[in-house]
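Re-run requested by the PI after the first attempt was lost when the workstation crashed. Everything re-entered from the original request form. Ligand of interest: oxaloacetate ion.
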Amino acid sequence: MAKSLSGAGLRGQVAGKTALSTVGKSGSGLTYRGYDVKDLANHCEFEEVAYLILKGKLPNKGELAEYKAKLKSMRDLPAALKEVLERIPKDAHPMDVIRTGCSMLGNLEMENDFSEQEAVTDRMLACFPSIICYWYRFSHDGVRIDTTTDDDSIGAHFLHMLHGEKPRELHEQVMHVSLILYAEHEFNASTFTARVCASTLSDMHSCITGAIGTLRGPLHGGANEAAMEMIEGFTSADDAEEKMMGMLERKEKIMGFGHAIYRESDPRNEIIKGWSEKLSKDVGDEVLYPVSVRCEAVMWREKKLFCNADFFHASAYNFMGIPTKLFTPIFVMSRLTGWAAHVMEQRADNRIIRPSAEYTGEELRSVTPIDQRD
Ligand SMILES: CC(=O)SCCNC(=O)CCNC(=O)[C@H](O)C(C)(C)COP(=O)(O)OP(=O)(O)OC[C@H]1O[C@@H](n2cnc3c(N)ncnc32)[C@H](O)[C@@H]1OP(=O)(O)O
Ligand SMILES: O=C([O-])CC(=O)C(=O)O
């Protein structure tokens, strides 16, 4: 019954102001500070877009070089954080690892006051890939990796630490695109979490830790992992169609499809789909990409549901040799920019976020003494 209320999930309600992005407005599907995401994905590196989101303008060459050099210099992890990461078991979920890593960093390098908000954000941007890969390689391969690579970009740094070798140019390029597509998305659930936390005047690490926990769920960022688990169970496009029809008959939710705001398509899909196709050819894949394309066709034909940003990210990441459980942490490495910018925006014009609830419980009643209760 609650779902039929027009306000369920706060859908359609304006919960605050932002100058950071527009989602699903007519004319363009997604813009960051006035730029179409397709334009950004075609022409920019992720670090340019991070700069745009966090500092308000696209950097010129000198500003970008300086920003990248600064981020590069902050990739190493404090010894106490490495110790914590080494104690987290191999079967932990990497989203829990990055959540703990972010929280621990907040203990070691606390944001003392809001004048440090940009500095602590840059530090997180630089070292989140190190946190993920340090834990992953220690727990899975028993090695203590060097997290101070000299790779030019955050995406290349991540792939280098993960695979133990410098990534190919194609893979670095895909990481730029992927991180750009995931960077910012208005008042999605994880960003709203960050803003609620910020509205109490809490610190940046607490806001980001809460947002990571919210992104983890399969209805939000976790959908890229869930989509991968589904498509790798299909042996061919025909097999995918048959099994999906069964899932739809059983009214199962199909991860990587649908959206709370977009009605006809997610503008990020066609971009990542194009790169997934390119990577599929590159690795000589004859199953995963055709399976994914068939899933898209079946969902549209049967339900008018379209792929969201997560669906083709699954195959794209898989073609680059990225383990499925690291998919959502990559989303974190990127969305951190949007989250932090929203925290800064909330702080700049704050009122504590505290909505009201429609009470559906018992009428007022009095306490029965404990020895008289059933
Ligand atoms: C980066 C991101 O976070 S993008 C989102 C990632 N999440 C996923 O891919 C998870 C799968 N998708 C979903 O669960 C939903 O589409 C959400 C959470 C994204 C949006 O939820 P809502 O805003 O409630 O969806 P919406 O109101 O459009 O749903 C309309 C109907 O379509 C159904 N539907 C929506 N998505 C799906 C899906 N993926 N599979 C099957 N049915 C679906 C809903 O169940 C609903 O039917 P009902 O009214 O009979 O319950
Ligand atoms: O906007 C949303 O609800 C979910 C989403 O696509 C995102 O956060 O990228």
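Saved to the shared folder this time. The chain has 16 helices and three strands.
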